[in-house]
Amino acid sequence: MLNGLWKKILDHIETLGLHIIDFVNNPLVKLIRNFLAYLNSILNSLTALIPGIDAIKEYKEVIESYLTIADDL
Known about the structure:
Layout: H1 2-15, H2 27-46, H3 53-72
Helix pairs in contact: 2-3
């Protein structure tokens, strides 16, 4: 029911000429999620070798958290 209401809201917004990213079904968001998962495995391997990699991991985790929060909206 909520998904149906959300689709109606998206349709109404598009009729106004505005656009909102549909985080659940957007192919670009899915690609970003896959990239972040791959990046996570690389960063875990490099953490012991390269100082400062933790800052990159934290930034990546913030992006993942934002995408998760956006899914719940």
